[in-house]
Design goal:
Blueprint: H1 8-22, H2 30-40
Helix pairs in contact: 1-2
């Protein structure tokens, strides 16, 4: 895939997950998966000033 495509973040995250798996006995623990995915797809915290009125 060329850089800058919409799938680039997914490709980067998947690449890092595969590298993490290669650095272990073939198993990446769940909290490591979460750390990697959070780096590429950070969760959005709710805006305390946002109202639905």
């Amino acid at each position: 895939m060329p850089p800058g495509t919409p799938a680039q973040l997914f490709i980067d995250a998947l690449t890092e997950l595969v590298q993490a798996q290669a650095g272990t006995d073939g198993f990446v623990v769940l909290h490591r998966w979460a750390e990697i995915l959070e780096r590429y797809f950070p969760s959005e915290l709710p805006d305390p000033d946002h109202t639905t009125d």
